[in-house]
Amino acid sequence: MSTAAFSLHPQLAQDTYNVTDLPLCRVLLMNEVRYPWCILVPRRVGIREIHELASAERQQLWEESDAVSRVLMVLFQPDKLNIAALGNMVPQLHLHHIARFQTDAAWPAPVWGKFLPESYSADSAASRCEVLRRLLQ
């Protein structure tokens, strides 16, 4: 599949900061300061589900998910790392990686819809993205 016409879903673009592009996926930082939260978006047009990716792309997605997971575990040492491919609001395939702590505001419930998001300041978002980018290279 061609990546020429790839564009990020408007909701993801509105809710995140761009961290970097890996071989398959764009890595995003969710604009929610309470939870270290990255999102992987395969740069493929029209893909809604993991099984729609070619076999090699599915393997690459898992490799990139593993890399993001390891970075989040080292940086934040969470009690649990939640990984989910939900697409109820945003149909474009995307994979959430959320570092969770027993002390976080939503624990043990899901983070979705629990509270209004607490946004990063521009400086803290830039700093967090730079650290993530450096560790993912």
UniProtKB/TrEMBL annotation:
PROSITE patterns with a match to the protein in the record: HIT_2 (PS51084)
Domain HIT: residue ranges: 39-107
Domain of life: Bacteria
Record GO terms (molecular function): hydrolase activity
One Pfam short name: HIT
Keywords associated with the record: Hydrolase
InterPro entries, sorted: HIT-like (IPR011146), HIT-like_sf (IPR036265), HIT_Hint (IPR026026)
Protein name, as recorded: Diadenosine tetraphosphate (Ap4A) hydrolase
